[in-house]
Each structure stands twice: as C-alpha cells, then as structure tokens.
Amino acid sequence: MMGQFLTAVLELRPSRRKAAAMERSRAAAEDLFWEVVGNQKSAADAVAAIAEPRTRLEAWRNAESVIARTILVASVKAGVPESVGQGLIRDVTMAVSSYVELRAAGHEAEWPAQTVVTEADHAAALDLFVTATTRADENEARDTLGRLAHIPGPRPMTIARSRDATLLRRSGHGSIVLALHILRASDPRSRQVDIAAGIDACTGEVTKAAKSATKLLIPVSCSKWHEQKFLSGRATLRSSLIVRRGERWFMCAQFEMAEATKQRLTGARLGVDRGVVNPVALAAVRQDGSVIATSEPLGSEVGKTIRSTEERRRAEQRRRGVVSRKHVRRLDNALHGLANRIVADAKTFGAQVVFEKLDGLKQAIVTKRPKGSRKGGWRKVMKAAQLGKLETIVAYKLKLAGMPVVRDVVAGGTSITCPACSVRDGKNRQTQAGFECVACGFNAHADTVAAVNVGRRDIAMKGIKKGGRLAPIEQDMVAQLRSRGDGGLGPLVAGLVAASGLVAVRVSAASAYDPILPGLTDAAGQKLCLCHPKSSQDDTPSGAVARSSVHKQRKGVPRQRVVQERLL
Hints:
The protein is of the alpha+beta class. The protein has helices at 16-38, 41-48, 53-78, 82-104, 119-131, 135-149, 224-230, 300-320, 326-349, 359-362, 375-400, 446-463, 470-481; strands at residues 3-12, 157-159, 165-169, 176-181, 193-195, 198-200, 206-207, 210-212, 215-221, 235-245, 248-258, 268-274, 280-285, 291-294, 351-356, 407-409, 434-436, 443-445, 502-506, 516-521, 527-529, 545-554, 557-567. The relative contact order is 0.08. The chain folds into three domains: 16-117, no CATH class; 266-489, Ribonuclease H-like superfamily/Ribonuclease H (Nucleotidyltransferase, domain 5), CATH 3.30.420.10; 497-568, no CATH class. The longest helix has 26 residues, at 53-78. The strands form six sheets. Strands 2-10-11-1-9-4-3-6-7 form a nine-stranded antiparallel sheet, sandwiched between helices. The protein has a five-stranded mixed sheet with strand order 14-13-12-15-16, sandwiched between helices. It has 13 helices and 23 strands.
C-alpha cells in the first residue's frame, strides 16, 4: 500500500517490572549506539572527501554494509535483541549519512557526540554566579545554566520492523495492548506470556493465540480520535520509537494510510492574511474575483496563549528552576485549531489556499533576546514565528485532505488597496484594524480587505505574462466587477455606504461626467446617478444624488477630482 505516512503518539502503561525491562533494553541500545558511532568518524570523513558523486555514493553503500555488520556483531556481544539491533542500524546510518552529506556539500558539521550532565555540572554552573564580578560574567553563568537545563533526555529506542511492535485488540471494541519484542529468550529475567486471540488493531486481521518469552504485553492509552484514525483497520504500522520521559513511556508510531481522494476544485481562492495583532483573516473569492464569504479576524487565542504561557513559564522557572514544554503543546493546539478552520473552509468552497509571501515569519528564531530588553517586543516576534509555523501545519493538513499545496503571493499593498475601486493609498488604513478608502469611502476591517486582495492577486497572477505588470490586471478585475449590483463585494457590500451617508468615489477625467457610475448602488439596490456638473442642487430630483467637487493635492500625485455624493 502506497499512501500517506502519519505519526501518532500513544502512551504506554507498563508495570514496574515491564518498565524496568524496557529501560534495560533502551539503555543498552543507547550505549551501543554511541560506541558504534564513535568508531565510524574516520570512515565517514573518507567518504565525504570523495568529490565524484557516483564514486561517493558507491563508497557510502559499502560503508552502510560495514555499519550493519558491525552493529549485528556488537549487539550479540552486548546482549541486545536482534529486533533492537535492526533499529540501531537505522539510527547509526542516518546519523553518519547526515554528517557525510553536509561535509560533502562543503558545510561545517559536528560529529555526533554524547552529552552527559551530572548534578556536579549544575552545581558548578551555580557557583559561577558566586564568582561573577561583572554583568558579562553573570550573563555567561546564566547562559551556561540555561544550556544545561535544555540537554536532551534519554535517547529513544527505535523499533524498525512492524512485526516487532504489534498493536493488538482483545475484541472488536476491547482494550489495546502493545506486543513489544525487545527481550532475549536467554534472558533469565524474561517470562513466558500468553497472547490471547484477538485482532490486529491497525489492519483488522484476526490474530491467533500464542506464547512468547521475548515479548512484553503493555497496555496502550490513547484518545477515541486516535482509535478512529489509526486503529480502525485502515492503517498499517510501519515503525515506532519507544520514548521515556521521566517515569512515563510513550510510543511514537508511524502509520501508513491510503492517500486521500483529491477534492474537486471550483476555481475559487481562499485568501489568508496573517498579522501579529490578528493572526488570521480569511476571504473566499470566485474565479472572477467576486467575494463569496469572509471571516472575522481569527486566532486571538494565539496571543492570549503566548501571554499566559510566558507568565506560567516564569512562575515555573522560579518554583522549579527548569521549564517544561507544556507551553509548546498549548500553542500547537491553538495553531492546529486555526489550520483546521482554514482547511475546512477550503474544502467547503473547493478553493485553492493562498498565503501572503512572508518569508520572515517562516524563519526559526535563533537569536536570543538581549537581556534587559522589553518583553513585549519579544512576544510579537514569538507570535510572528508561530504564524510561520501555521503555514507548515496547513500545508500537511491540506495534503491529508486531498487539497492542492499552498500558494504564495507578494504581500505588498494588500492591506491598503481598496477592493471596491482598486485605489492603492497608504491613507486608506488609518488605524491597525480600520480601513476606509479615501476615494470611494468603502470601509471594512483591514485584515479582511487584505485577505480579499490576497485571493484576487493569485487569480491575477494566472493572467500575467512575462514582463507584464500585476497592478493593471487587478484594476481590470475590479473594473469588471463594478458593473455588478454589489460591485463583486458580496458580504462586504454594506461597507460601500458609510455610517454618515457619505460615499466618496474617485473618477477619471473620461468618466467624471458619466450619467451612471458603474457599480454604485444604494441600500435598496438601485444604481446611483451622477447629475451633470453644471446642474444645480435645486434641479436635482428627489431621490437623486447631489454632489460637490473638491480638489485634493498630494505630494508626488497629480491633482485629481474627488466627487462626493450625499444620499438624499
């Protein structure tokens, strides 16, 4: 079966005896890993020094065979089961190949080395504060203590073959257990277990009763969502990692599932605008640029989560001296909620998802905040980084849903360009949230306007030719939509009529005296008429539009006529 690969984290509930057996196998595998890796550096440097790609590939394949034989022989001597040895072959091969590829490409690469942190290291780091006499010494001591607090925990144990880690269900809706093959039959502490007849929780195949002295039966705890997604006979378990976090054990299981059916597209676009204050705003537009639906700004919980978790982290650091990763999970949950909303709307409208091209949001933060600087600015940087992470989450969720990959468009001017008359002016956005066009008076939330323009821009990109300009295509799109009763604005048409009853429309010299300005309608849906400029207000019939002319001069912009219309 060729399809999609997903990883699920399942919690294991071993007894003390089984947990001790798992820890013995894990610790033995970790020691053997570092022993084999430490002896492969010279061979890896020799392979990386080969300039010709084909020769280097052939040499690497020979090195892989040597690594596999070395691990199998060493695992027998160390008393490591063959099932765990197969996982070690994969781990060592990946670690060494990564080093070889980096060195062959001319990059600096560090050889994998084991880091061991003891209580004495923490005590020594604390002693640095006692001897610190300058601010620089104090900062160095603080950084040293921070590095020690972020040392990775115990190395996971890889189970490379699915037959060595099988998820079994006792009956159709019974409990789930993991049959984990990590013991040796010659181990004096191993016990024979009776494996009752049941079904394979992944594939749904019937399993027979059996006896084994090399397997541990460990209860598995997971949510109903995980059961329906992975343990309903529609997935195949390929490999897994056995991870220990403190006293708790987890299984990171990789499942292979059938590829999702491709969704039918309608040609619509779902524009997604991202911002620091309002993380996400959505707008669905048709293939001609008309607006189908919009959403209020979403993701306020991301900012609240960042603030609350930052406060919790400070309190936890004062109380325990270390920081957990709960805040990361809370942020991930908020981002997954936003991603689910975006994917659901894309499926509803059969739309292509379009993001602004904000490469800065996708970059990982590697620089530290200067000590003593304000934390508020760092919060904004953190939120921006989360919005970059959002695009990554949306990308893989779209693939799982059978939707096309995300497309990016240039973000310039999307939040200051009017979707009703296509006038681009920085004064259109007077506040962070407020958008009011200086030409036609259209008003809406600025992020919603940006989302509409993002979706329309992707449509315009399809019609652009080499050497062409994007702005004229977008203006022609808006001009064609203005001939409609709602101007192609759909749910945003109410924004054409300001609260004061004033609507300003910028017109060109050729169309300034047209009797009917295309696209302008009143609340009843009737087209608004422009009377001849020489006509007086007394000649204007009841229900028509009175107008006055004003001239506006801006630096670098030629004088243009702005016709202000008041609804009588």
